[in-house]
Amino acid sequence: MNRILLLGAPGSGKGTQAAKITQNYGIPAIATGDILRENVAAGTPLGLEAKRYMEAGELVPDDLIIALMNDRMHEDDAKNGYILDGFPRTIAQAEALDEFLAKSGGELDHVFYLTAPKDVLIARIAGRRVCPQCGAIYHMTRFPPKTPGVCDVCGAAIIQRKDDNAETAENRIDVYERQTKPLIEYYEKKGILMTFDSALGSEIVQAKIDEVMAA
Ligand code: ADP
Ligand code: ZN
User: Fold this and answer.
1) Residue 33, ligand 1, Cβ within 6 A
2) Residues 6+ positions from 172 with CB-CB distance below 8 Å
3) Interval between CA 32 and ligand 1 midpoint (Å)
4) Interatomic CA distance for residues 170 and 192, integer angstroms
5) How high is the pLDDT of residue 105?
6) Which of 47, 204, 208, 209 has the most CB atoms lying inside 10 A of its own CB?
7) Is 142 a catalytic residue?
8) Model confidence, pTM
9) pLDDT band at 215, cuts 50/70/90?
């Protein structure tokens, strides 16, 4: 069983690593941000409520997120493990996850914590482009698509997320420092936290994660 949690600031490369782990191990990546954006696009009640928080770079209230994740983690594809990307983001969410795990008779196998200096985070976020159709992630200068503006994987037009501008990114990083960073200690105490320097580049981090997963 592989139950993996990815922790790290916005722009630390959680989405990129989640995609690699899914590819290599066939376990689903559950990204709260993606689920929320789908709800915003579909205009669901949750999406309508979440939208203003997301655009301001603030966290969506815990009760909404906990209800959403409870449903998601009960789905069939999560029976044999999952990669959590973007949840939990507060101590209350981490406690809710612990309750869920206790009820389902399991625990997290690994918590991978990705670190990077703030200026690196901001540069990554501001240059990030994403494919709205298949979820592929690009960067304007570091990892552009072969044809400008077009997804290599599926051919759709790539876009910039509304919250991926320098100003909102600053706030998202501040919110991360205040509300999510306490989780580092929370998981350190459980003895399952491993830290990787994401400034080394995604391939080196990926190799290190592979080593841990194979052990
Ligand atoms: P990033 O990690 O780059 O900030 P995400 O896609 O994970 O991007 O999140 C985008 C936005 O969605 C967050 O800024 C926040 O508003 C909301 N969000 C995502 N996950 C959570 C969560 N677990 N709790 C509260 N809000 C969340
Ligand atoms: Zn695509």
Assistant:
1) yes
2) 9, 10, 57, 125, 163
3) 6
4) 29
5) 83
6) 209
7) no
8) 0.94
9) confident
